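agent: user wants the full assembly modeled, not chains individually. Plan: 1) parse entity lines 2) check alphabet per entity 3) run joint structure prediction 4) return tokens. Steps 1-2 passed, two entities, 233 residues total. Proceeding.
--- entities ---
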Amino acid sequence: AQKITQTQPGMFVQEKEAVTLDCTYDTSDQSYGLFWYKQPSSGEMIFLIYQGSYDEQNATEGRYSLNFQKARKSANLVISASQLGDSAMYFCAMREGPGSARQLTFGSGTQLTVLP
Amino acid sequence: GAVVSQHPSWVICKSGTSVKIECRSLDFQATTMFWYRQFPKQSLMLMATSNEGSKATYEQGVEKDKFLINHASLTLSTLTVTSAHPEDSSFYICSAREWLGVRNIQYFGAGTRLSVL
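--- prediction returned ---
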């Protein structure tokens, strides 16, 4: 079974509008971390936001917020007020285990295109 | 956020030569670094986990003699692609983990595009 599932290969959004990128995960661990990264065409992976499994509130970082629904095992990324520079590939990732040295497991990514 | 520097960003080499890629954590110490490979329009594939002062842990299917990893200090890990061949052409990206108590974040370098002729 896929650990991280991103069901939207591509998404389009109009500039200045909000967009939600979906991510569901599968784990039996009680302690885990969820991450979102942005990868523009240049290739670098840019860390956007982190949500710990025990965090009671949804994480927010500027225009990025993570809609964490633990019972549904979903961790959707919400980008508010989209900008042209937001066009990129977005990856959801999970690290299982309590602060361990385990590696990240990545989803297949969602290509976001912001339209002017 | 923390900065991970990766060099070179782009390298072209002849088949049979070796290529070294450096990954540095600039403003934090990283006991653990990771090396990934990414094919076009695909997700990242973990190649190996690099631990400072010890041998790297390679993922299944990754040739340790082909992809030599050295993590000699808390801020530097290197990946050497030995006797490179065209099938080794790919995008290689390193990552370093910054420990902040319970919360630890993995930051990535800008990646290296390797083209083997």
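agent: reporting back. The longest strand of chain B covers residues 90-100. The interface with chain A takes residues 1, 32, 34, 42-44, 46, 49, 51, 91, 93, 95, 97, 99, 101-111, 113 of chain B (CB under 8 Å).
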